[in-house]
Amino acid sequence: MDQYRNLCETILSTGTTKEDRTGTGTISVFGYQMRFNLSKGFPLLTTKRIPFRLVVSELLWFLQGDTNVRTLIKQRNSIWNEWAFEKWVKSEDYSGPDMNDFGRRAANDPEFALILEGKMNEFCQQIIDDDDFAATYGDLGPVYGKQWRSWAGAKGEIIDQLQNVIHSIKHNPNSRRHIVSAWNPSEVDEMALPPCHTMFQFYVADGKLSCQLYQRSADVFLGVPFNIASYALLTHLIARECKLEVGEFIHTLGDAHLYLNHMDQVELQLSRSEKTLPELKINSTKSLFELVTEDITVENYDPHPTIKAPIAV
Asked: Where is the Thymidylate synthase/dCMP hydroxymethylase domain positioned along the sequence (predicted)?
């Protein structure tokens, strides 16, 4: 994936050093675009392993309109755990060791990291076992799934943006309004995390479906490879639902940044050779909203080993 490599190299050579909300510091550029021809292979990074099962389960969670981490935890997907966990440890119901600034403390204190792991496991088990606890502390507010499937209109109506766009693609393919937005100004402050991938638009030409994503904030080492795979998969799934072939995935980035504590990992990744892209397999005839994680796989994925890096929180 030369597109991703070029992005990293551009940031390293032309980026500006900036402070950020995590206090870690970044090198960033503003306004960058990558294009992926989806007929040339599935764009799953090969210079480090990307956990495709997590990509699939999170995307299906969005598509189902879900906003509670319970669904993900049951599928061993921990992507959103820290946001729900933080809600619990800041509540009056929490009792235990101080968890203030738990992400940064764990990165610098191995002993605390073990304590955090134990409390996180306790939290996840209670989310699974206790309906009331899950309802209170598992819900992340009106994040992506809510906005995609249940946008609250000004007149009190509920708008299913995703169903609407599928209907529009099928019945008015030349429309320039095949748009889904996750950025709802009236509800941003209620979300556990304001949406980073804020809006996507579909385009139909020559029997092929293309998708362009606008992402306001892009963690290029940890997040962007995941985002590329997620929206490439979304394009495949919507194309399949609408009986179209796939065209391009176009990824437009606002603030594209590398965290300063990821520099060693980025250099290691850039030193690695690219490998052949895998092939996406959808092993089911189910409709879009009936698919489960096990229905979607990739074949011939042979990446370099995983590169671990600290998460900036």
From this structure: 3-313
